[in-house]
Each structure stands twice: as structure tokens, then as C-alpha cells.
Amino acid sequence: MKVRLTYAHFEVKGSTDNYLVAYDDEEGWYCNCPDRHYRKHECKHIRETKHSLKRGLVVDEVIPETQTTLVV
Predict the structure, then answer these.
(1) pLDDT digits (tens, 9 = 90+) for 34-65
(2) Which residue of 32, 35, 36, 55 is most buried, as measured by CB atoms within 10 A?
(3) Could you tell me if 21 and 53 are in contact, meaning their C-beta atoms sit under 8 angstroms apart?
């Protein structure tokens, strides 16, 4: 079975803070960390979220309204 990701919302535990990582099929990946904001490139939080999704999602807590918390 194939699954197509159209929207996802994750909270990623960073080294200094927790960050919002989101994906939608129109805008692509987003992270609210300073690195992504200032340098405009794919940050380590997005890369780790993608990696976690590929190896099998480990969910710490599921929030209603199709939002998922992912602790990596």
C-alpha cells in the first residue's frame, strides 16, 4: 500500500528548543528554527523528520485534528 503525504505537522525536539516542522503538498517543508529562517535551506530538523518518516514513524503523542508530535 502506498501513502501520499498531503499535510503533516510535527514538533521536533532540537538541541536548544522545540521546533515546528510542517509539510504540505503545495508549499513543501517548513521549519520555524532560526537556521531555516535566515539561511533559507533545508535544516537538520527537516532532514531528521524526513529520515524518521522513512524509517518508520515513532509517535510520542498524537494530537487531535490530524496533528502529530514527533520527538526525534
Answers:
(1) 988 888 789 999 999 988 888 776 555 444 44
(2) 36
(3) no
pTM: 0.69
Give me the residue label for grid cell 532560526.
Answer: 34
Phi, psi of 24 (to 5 degrees): -140, 155
**Can you read off the three cell numbers belonging to residue 67?**
496533528
Residue 2, domain member (yes or no) = no
Total number of domains in the chain: 1
DSSP secondary structure letter of residue 71: -
Confirm whether 60 is domain-assigned: yes
Whole-number Å distance between alpha carbons of 10 and 38: 21
For 50, the enclosing helix (H) or strand (E) is: helix 44-55
pLDDT given at position 45: 92
